[in-house]
Each structure stands twice: as C-alpha cells, then as structure tokens.
Amino acid sequence: MSTTSSAQQWSEHYTSGRGIEPLSATEMDIVRDRLAPDAAGQEPRALDVCCGTGELARLLAGLGYRVDAVDYAQDAVDRAAAAPGPDVAYHCVDVATGDLGALAPADGFDLVTVRRSLAHLGDRTRIVAELAGLLRPGGTLCVITPHADRFPAGLRGICLDEAELALLTAGWEHAERVEAGDCTVVLLRGPGASAVVHQEKRRPTAAAMAGVAVVVSDPRGRVLLGWNPSRNVWELPAGKVEPGEAFEGTAVRELAEETGLRAAPGEVVLLGTLCDDTHGMTRITEVARLTRYDGTPQPQQDEQVTRWEWHALNALRVLPQPLFTASAQALNTVWPGLLPGLPPAHFTPRPTQAGADRVRFGEPAAAVRLREQLVEELTENGWTGTPELRAAFRAVPRHAFLPEQPLERAYANQAVVTVTSDDGASLSSVSQPEMQAVMLDRGRLREGNHVLEIGGGGCNAALMAELVGPTGTVTCIEFDPYVHRRTVRFLQETGYADRVRVVHGDGVHGAPEHLVPPGGFDAILVTVAAMDVPPAWTAQLAEAGRLVLPLRLGGYTRCVAFEKRGPLLSSSHVSPCGFVSMQGIGHWDNTPLPIGQSSYAIRWEDTPPAPIDALEHALAGDPVELWTGVTIAGEESYEMLQLWLAVALPGFCRLTGDCGKGPVLLPKNQDAAALVSGDSLGCLTLRRTEPDGEQGTSRWEFGAQGFGPQAHALAESVADAVHTWDRTFRHGPAPTLIALPASMRAAHPPNRYFIDKPHRRIALHFTGAAS
To answer: Do 602 and 525 share a domain, yes or no?
Structure first.
C-alpha cells in the first residue's frame, strides 16, 4: 500500500504502540457537519480505507453508518477491533492489490473515506478511480490529507501539495475543499464520465526522427535502389513522415516524389518498425513493402538520387558501393539474413498475417529454368517418383528461401546452411532437395492431409502445402526466433502465409492443442536430427499416420519413416542422412570426452558411458591389428555396417581424433566405430588396398585394432562383427525399426537388437539377404 513502507513495517509500527495523528476537533466537526447520513434514507454504508486504529471508523459508526474499515497492517486491524466503541467490521486488505469490491453493497457505499494515507499510495490516481467506482450515485469520497505547505521539507512525503490536490479533484462533478489545521479535507461527488481529453506538452527538443523506407520489387524479384552521389550510397525510396500523415501515405508520397512511381496506399504492407540511432538522435524507420505500382522509376527534379536501378537480392552483399545503413536494415527486415554484419537495430514487427496477400511474388526467368533442371535431375535419379511431387518442386521457388545465395547455389542438389554458431557449427539449413523428396515421398502426403513439420526454414513447408492442396493444412514449429522470423517472412513473400501456420515454440512439445486436427496429423515430418521420439509426436499422430524423422541411432543419423500402429511405430524406410541437431529440450551434448592427454576422445550417445581413464595408457602401447579381407569400393556406402556395430558391440562408442596422428588408423573426416571394455579399446579401421583406377575408384579393406590388455579379444570382436555383416546382412535390406514405448520390455527375438532411449525403445531387426 505504501510506496516507502511494507505491511510488515506498518504492523511493527502499530505493535510498538504507535498510531497515526488523532482526529482533531476541527476534523471531527467537519465530518459531523458535512458527512452525517440522511436519517430518512435506508441504512447508510461507509468504507474507511487505511483505517489505522479505527478512530475515524468509530466516529462514522457513531453517526449512524454501518462501517467497513480496512487496513493492510494486521496489527492495526487487531488494535482497532479491540478498541471500545460502536460496532465496525474490520478487514485486513491491501487497498493497492486487494478486492474492496467484495465488501461493497449492491448499490455501493454512501461514503468512502481515506485519512492521512493517500500520499503513501504509489498508484493513487488509479486507486482513487477504483474507490470512486465503489460509490453509489450521489455518494461522497472524503480525502483528509496533510498539506505540503504546512510541513517542513523533510515530511513532504506524507503530504499532498497543490498540484496533487488539483490532480485529485480533476474530473469530479463536485469538488469541495475545507481546511482543517495542517490538513485539507477534500469532498468529492459525481466521478466524471466524460470523453477522454488530450493535449500536447511544451515543444520538445529534437531527439528523434521518424521516416518510412519503401522496399519495392519488380516482377523479376529485383529490389529498387537509388544512387545518391551526395552521400555516396545506394538507398531505398524513403523520407520523413509529415505531420498527421499515415505511414502508408508517406510511402506512396515519397515513392512518387523520388522515383515517379505511383501506388495506392492500400497496396502498401507495413512490416514493422526499426529503431536505431544516428548522429546522437533516435531514428525510427517504418518498413513498407510494395510490389504493385504504376510507372517506370526515373530520377526526379530537386531530388538527391541521380539514378534508380533494380538490383538482384543475392548481389547486394557484393555491391562495390556502400548501402545506406537504414536502407540496409530495412532490406534485412524484408529478407532476414540477406545482409550480415549490420549495426544493431531493434525491430518491432506488425502482425504477420496483415497484408500478406498484397505482396506479389516475382522471380527472374533463370530461376524457372534452374528449377526445371533440378526437377529433371531429381526425377532421373529416382527421387521424385510421382507427378504430384514433381509438380511441387516445380511450383516452389527454392531461391526465395535463400535470397542471399546465387541462383545456381540455391538450385544445386545440396543442403545450404543458413545459420551457424560462433564456433562455425551449423544451426539451421535448407535441406538437400533429394532429401526433401525422400521425406515427402515417405510421408505419403496427399490432397487434404494435415501435416506437422518440426523445424523451420519455409521451403519444405511450402512443398508440403503444394502436396496437401487448399483442403489440407501445414503447421510448422520452429524453436529459433531468428529462423522463425525468417520463415514467416519468406512464406509471406512467396504467397504461402495463408497456407502454412508457423508457430514459435519447442518442437518437442508438438503443435499447440488448438492446431491439432481431430484424430491427429496424417503425417509429421521432422527436419532436424532427433535423439528420441517425444511422446507428443506419437500422441498427435493419427492412427496409421506417418512420422518421418532423422533419428540418431548409436551416434549415426538415419532418415526413418515410421507408421503408427497403436502404441508402436514400425519403419518402412531407413536411409542415411545428415541434419542439424534439435535445439531446446531435445538438444544433446555431443562433446567428446578426452582420453587423458592423448589426442583421442570418446563419444557416447545411446550406450551408458564407461570409465576411460585407463585408455590413455592402453593407447600408448602397441596395437593389435586384424584385417578382415572384407572390402568395399571407394564410393560404396557402409551405413548398415555402422548400425550393425552400434547394436552388436557391447560398450559401443565412437572414437574421434586427428586422422594420421597417433596409432589409431582413423577413417578420414569421421569417427571410428569402437567399443570399450575395462582398460582396453577396440575400433574399426580402413586401409586402401587398390589405388584409384581409370574410373577414379579404389578399394578399401575393413580391419580392427585393439589396445590394452584385452587388445586381441576386442579386435576379434570388431572383426567378427564385420564378417557377420558381410556374410549375413550386407546385401540384404535395411533393418526394420520398431519404436516401442520405453515402458515396454520384451524378450529378444532372433536378429532383433535394441537401443534404449528415454521415451522409446528402438528395436532393430536385421534380415539376411536370403530371407
């Protein structure tokens, strides 16, 4: 209640025997003379706020009021209740936060009093308004307050001055003041209900400037920039807001004045407000987006820009001349990530759905050609097996989700990293087209399906929107705020904003409940590597629905397509893939544990970590090497062997280090499958057996190394596992995966192995070539 004292301090004040200044004879005379109830009316009701020890409340009760008295110091309430006198109902309530309305009669109080307390209330304007709302029509609010002019400066904090009294009485139909010694008694009736008024303060000192930057693009997707020789910069059409002018009006006026282009205010889409500083002033820039206009841009008389040009987005990073800072920041607002390394600016976006249908997408003819070439390449290699999938890749402008990249790079069949960490690790990317095609195909998306994507970027969501059509829905969950903003903007730019719902949140939790369709999603596609299958994903998946995700298995990432069958998920597809890892709750620490002072380290993922201190000594000794005679061609994949070793070798882990340095024959650019047993280590290795031939191919032989007292036994374990794979599984299909709830435990059927996750037990069933 007090801005300077707590309830505990006031309770201690009253416990010590102190109170507040007693009612003076003048105050009592004023109360009796001016606030006595009408004897002819119904039982009068009064509320005494901040009652202290209850002196005023008892006076009112003696005049015939039925009185409720409140204070937020419990000791004050106890002392007041114990004092002799007329009946008063005392309550311990904080007037600043409590519910005084619960005490009010249906038609309100006849009188509300506040004595020697209002100056202590920090939000007194609000509190007075709330007390006024407790009065019946014609009721009175009585404020008795020490007057600042009658007290020394050190006590002004308990008083109101003339300015505060004027503020208190403003807006009341009737306000009366009576002086009572060192206090002023204010009687207020008829709280005002007039329209809101407003006025300006004195003319301010110039401290900020507000303007609008207009980001205009043509039917080929190029942005309009003007060369300003006096500033030696490229800049957007822009200008200051005139008094009383709407931002849309500023945009079309400045566009016409500077370029000669004509546009209607209704075609302008306002994206939000940038705030930064320049020359000691705050610069506020409203970013306007415009794609519909008439005319050809031309330099205008008396304007600083001497020529206007259309520029390709991916060329802006390498402009030989500088961009005006505010224009560069506006461009980065429209296309987040387009221009790196800009000075900081705070951006407040407008609602994302506003005006999205007024942005007309444009693209160069080369993009159409490159997109068609990509579709032909994907089709020739068997990645786009249906007409619907080919049509989706032809329709979605992949380069629009990679505006900073050259067109050839955007349409190459490779993933493109869009966000990296400070240490260079990939945090977000646009997936490789063939991997997008695989996941979309395995998700079996059809017209009318309801699909959930975990992970953002926008390109994959747009492909899904094409496949499910106008009767289906696509919901995208993105954790990173920057990627979320980038996704939203690019979907707006390409016209998919009304077809894809983008949510900023942690994908582990799935979609918000109000976005989950009845019966669940027909498909969930996860476009970030996941360590586990969270319960929300299976709960939100329809029966027989498809879950396609990059799943970590023993430290290896595999694209797995599951189908839901009751509590189980059964795979129909498993293939190698590479994806950035999940952020948020689903993130895992992949930092290897160093083996002493050696140059090697161990990564544990699905296997409980074992002590590795003794391995430093083991690695210092001579290794045991066993060569299996099992070979592969240089371009041949052995991803099934990796999965097999992950479940076949007890104590499985991955060994990492510098290739070519030290005794371990590590594969180049990757970890080695390994196992730890006590003070010994075994690992898989490779050596070249045939040099590159005329076709540029070579052959490699698998081997095993062992270190430590059990070196030979561990090397044999690795070699035996390689032989088993080569003899039984190498030419067979990929293993079938069954994801069971973690609570389910079953006997191990033949050829079935398990990887236990926190939420799921993953059963891997390897089938031989013959079967």
So the answer is: no
Q: 494 near 400, Cβ under 8 Å?
A: yes
The identity of residue 394, as a single letter, is R
Q: What is the largest CA-CA distance in the chain?
A: 117
Q: Is residue 767 part of a domain?
A: no
> Do the beta carbons of residue 36 and residue 42 sit within 8 Å?
no
Q: By three-state DSSP, how is residue 653 classified? A: strand
Tokens representing residue 232 in the block: 């030696």
Query: What tokens appear for 762 in the block?
Result: 């993953």
Residue 378 in contact with residue 234, Cβ under 8 Å?
Answer: no
Q: Facing residues of 91 across strands?
A: 70
SS (H, E, C) 705-760: EEECCCHHHHHHHHHHHHHHHHHHHCCCCCCEEEEEECCCCCCCCCCEEEEECCCE
* Same structural domain, 567 and 616: no
d(C-alpha 771, C-alpha 7), whole Å: 80
Could you tell me if 581 and 598 lie in one domain? no
DSSP symbol at 598: S
Rg of the chain (C-alpha set): 38
Distance CA 685, CA 676 (A): 15
b (16+ CB within 10 A) / e for 180-210: beebbbbbbbbbeeeeeeeeeeeeeeeeeee
What is the Cα–Cα distance from 76 to 83, expressed in whole angstroms?
11
Question: Looking at the structure, do residues 222 and 110 belong to the same domain, yes or no?
Answer: no
Residues 214 and 345 in one domain: yes
pLDDT at residue 765 in the model? 92
Nearest to residue 95, comparing CAs of 68, 144, 141, 131? Answer: 131
Q: Residue 608 carries which side chain, given as an amino acid letter?
A: P
Q: Return the CATH number at 445.
A: 3.40.50.150
| pLDDT at position 170 | 83
Q: How does pLDDT run across 502-525, given as a tens digit for each residue?
A: 999 999 999 999 999 999 999 999
- Quick: pLDDT tens for 139-157: 999 999 999 999 988 887 7
Question: Rounded to an integer, what distance in angstroms lies between the CA atom of residue 636 and that of residue 646?
Answer: 19
**Catalytic residue annotation:** 431
Are the beta carbons of 123 and 96 closer than 8 angstroms? Answer: yes
Please indicate, yes or no, whether residues 519 and 486 belong to a single structural domain of this protein: yes
Count of structural domains, the chain: 4
**In the block, which residue shows the tokens 């010994």?**
680
- Residue 646 class from Cβ within 10 Å (0-12 exposed, 13-18 middle, 19+ buried)? buried
Residues 244 and 261 in one domain: yes
User: Do 316 and 332 form a contact (C-beta atoms < 8 A)?
Assistant: no
Q: Do 545 and 579 belong to one domain?
A: yes
Show the tokens assigned to 585: 């709750």
What element of type H or E holds 62? helix 55-62
| 137 phi, psi to nearest 5 deg | -55, 130
Domain of residue 330 covers 208-358
